[in-house]
């Protein structure tokens, strides 16, 4: 073989080798390309990452300067991903007009490649001119039958066209990319659905729930906007929208029949269609899914997109599942609201009086404490109001009538407080008014008067006109200093003071009065234990025949030997005992003690007819069965009722109906004396009504009769009256011989006083009865 | 005592009414402070009293780098500084071999606007780091934009996926902004590679310079490697380890494809034992060219690459002798300077090239400078070069890359 031939053959072989190498290189390169893209498509990632990474790989394996994915929206290409443009490039937002090669690719459903010199601005937008791109390939992405149009594109600065194999390869890659992105989107949608469903259940307030649902729906479906429309009684109302609707549209309400998709919704089916818009925008693609509860639409979900991007079957399924989540969340929200309402109702019950609907003691206490801890420079006013004679109404007309009266009282009281004040019922017939800001005590007093006045008019009750009144006590509390407890205590004390002064009165306590009240309060508390602590003693003041000085009997007088205060005067503690009711026990003790003592003395020689006067308070007289009880005490002591004289005041007899009491006891022989005749009403009709046997002339008149003609005249008049209706008379407080003489001269036969004998201990009195014979004037105590 | 290199060419060009000047200095003094100061002072003198707008420093990792940088900044002041640890440096035609030296380039103001920034977290997510780096550099360059731009990047040469870093950068900048630079290197070992940002030394990070320019900036690259044998398909790869090629054990296929007349028949072994490979993988690019991917045999006898080969990638075994590599110098420089009114040529070569060049290592620096003529060359030997010009790919091995400024 010639050398030249060998050389030729070698050269030929070399050429063949180069060609073979190039062919293999191409084949492997194609292979490598598709494998690399498939590798990326197979890696786990979000749809966004998948697009991003795929475009990077496409840029690498095809040497593309720009690789992108776009969606056809109307007449434009809108980029959904891009590699090779600066991230701030405006075209990423605006996209560009669909035309040239891209439009051909979409229309023909096949890849189109184009390079200079055939390339124009229509193919690659002029906005990318700075990149000096010289070739491109456009590949449509095939989706499902109702999928929107998408495409993949690669632009290069090289004018070399991709070959048919590469185009085929790209088309195959594009389809796989579309499928992979769709699968990822489905998986993301499923994940989002699950997450959103869970999140929705966390919204317990309906407005927030609906607002959140609209936002989530828009995100789930990639919608431009979304709405939740609630349905109630044939009318639909806009519940929420995302993005939030302008105010003027935020409240529309219309018949359900006007809603697009309503008839499908009643069958529980979703609806896809075109929304004509509200007249100010383009028609939009619409998806409606009903939120079914108890077999009927409770709300409708609406999602809107540009009409060139209608909703597909998957969106319907997603919306349907989301609607189910929302239905469950709405049920949750309603249960929560019911629970909250019931809690509120329980709270109301716990803090309000069920009869009148006013605040109760606990709420008023809370409010008072809150007011006292406030920063308003003005003090807080408090009025304690107790109805007079309420018990009588209750007893007479029954509890239902009593309740109705309380209701009417509450209603009237509401009319005399300001909106900022608190009116409360403390129970029974006690009402309290808290003045959130009171100028001074005068203002408190004024409110008190207003309360009294407003209750003055008769109340229509069971066909009657019932007249009641109220006793009101008021105090002021300084914020930051006074406590609620102290205010309530002082107002209560002020009310009692008012009540003691008579019905329908107002008493306000300043600080000094409150202190006194506090002192009285301590005394009251101690008084309740005085009997058991053996601090009470009886003194006996002789009642004598003024002419002969013969001891006719004694008046039992109560003394309280307080371990700290010493002897507390009866005028100080008897009213307290009456207020607290302690007078009942004390009165019983006094009567029993006096009777027992009388029994002892009556066994002394010549003393069998000795008498004993015992004072009774009005409170005692009000006790049920008091007549029988009193008689029992007298008899138990072993004395004759005829030797006992019960002294009552004219005042007591007026406050209480004592007729029955007096008649019963008088029938048993008990005597009655009117203690204060002349100083109060001095009503002769009382004398006629009561079985009184004796009148006692008050020490005031006795004291003044030797100096003043008036007093002498009064004494004379009393004696004349007594004489005329056959009553005995006892003059009290005789301290001088002149007084005794004057009384004798006027025909008064009996008296008591220091001149005749001071109040004595039982031993002293016994000694007097034993030693001094029939008369004695011992030294003063 | 060795005589320190002192290079201080006065390089400048008229640029409108302003003059764009650069200055270059280098030192092989052992003391980090003295070396830094000496190189910086030499470089600064090239600005003829002008203020530096950017300082670029390449230095051996055997220096006390924080001390070295502090010494440089004592001279250059607050001008932003970027740089990387090197496996040898070259400037103005002179090579400083691995294991010693510092080279400093100062760029005066007037023509370009620079924005310097750095990121960390390359290992955790190179893509995100790249995105952040590009955005930060762009922000640092200020709100005004010139017509053209490039990005110079140095990254930790042993951290993360360098192409991932470039992918992230590309996502922000797009195709319009070329990328040049290299991965920081160490001196013939794989211990630690670092990048510099102002006075800081960063591992697991990257530093970048946004360069705004009134004229187009062009990044070029070339390697001189020759394909040998038929294209092959990488059929089994696990990260940096190549297990199978064409369905057969990778090492057997690799060895089978060695060039019969290769002067260095011994197999390349790990760098710790002196990496000198005349063979590499050539990743076949879309245009048919090959992207070099260096390879070596590890202690277990497995073939490893410095950056993973994509699965099922098409490769060819590449080979190169010293002349193959050196012969690329002139065309590359011509390409880089084509139409460019340049003052300095930032050039990045590979530690692997030096290994092949061996005793002829200094020739590359000389030939580059000679080809560049009056334009100063300045660069370092990297653990991977950056030249992103077409599409997103831009990470190279055993390649020369350059940008003329």
UniProtKB/TrEMBL annotation, chain A:
<dbReference type="Pfam" id="PF00990">
    <property type="entry name" value="GGDEF"/>
</dbReference>
<feature type="domain" description="GGDEF">
    <location>
        <begin position="378"/>
        <end position="511"/>
    </location>
</feature>
<dbReference type="InterPro" id="IPR029787">
    <property type="entry name" value="Nucleotide_cyclase"/>
</dbReference>
<dbReference type="Pfam" id="PF00563">
    <property type="entry name" value="EAL"/>
</dbReference>
<dbReference type="InterPro" id="IPR035919">
    <property type="entry name" value="EAL_sf"/>
</dbReference>
<dbReference type="InterPro" id="IPR003018">
    <property type="entry name" value="GAF"/>
</dbReference>
<dbReference type="InterPro" id="IPR029016">
    <property type="entry name" value="GAF-like_dom_sf"/>
</dbReference>
<dbReference type="InterPro" id="IPR052155">
    <property type="entry name" value="Biofilm_reg_signaling"/>
</dbReference>
<dbReference type="InterPro" id="IPR000160">
    <property type="entry name" value="GGDEF_dom"/>
</dbReference>
<dbReference type="Pfam" id="PF01590">
    <property type="entry name" value="GAF"/>
</dbReference>
<feature type="domain" description="EAL">
    <location>
        <begin position="520"/>
        <end position="773"/>
    </location>
</feature>
<dbReference type="InterPro" id="IPR001633">
    <property type="entry name" value="EAL_dom"/>
</dbReference>
<protein>
    <submittedName>
        <fullName>Uncharacterized protein</fullName>
    </submittedName>
</protein>
<dbReference type="InterPro" id="IPR043128">
    <property type="entry name" value="Rev_trsase/Diguanyl_cyclase"/>
</dbReference>
From TrEMBL, chain B:
<dbReference type="InterPro" id="IPR013702">
    <property type="entry name" value="FIST_domain_N"/>
</dbReference>
<dbReference type="Pfam" id="PF08495">
    <property type="entry name" value="FIST"/>
</dbReference>
<protein>
    <recommendedName>
        <fullName>Histidine kinase</fullName>
    </recommendedName>
</protein>
<feature type="domain" description="FIST C-domain">
    <location>
        <begin position="250"/>
        <end position="389"/>
    </location>
</feature>
<dbReference type="InterPro" id="IPR019494">
    <property type="entry name" value="FIST_C"/>
</dbReference>
<feature type="domain" description="FIST">
    <location>
        <begin position="51"/>
        <end position="249"/>
    </location>
</feature>
<dbReference type="Pfam" id="PF10442">
    <property type="entry name" value="FIST_C"/>
</dbReference>
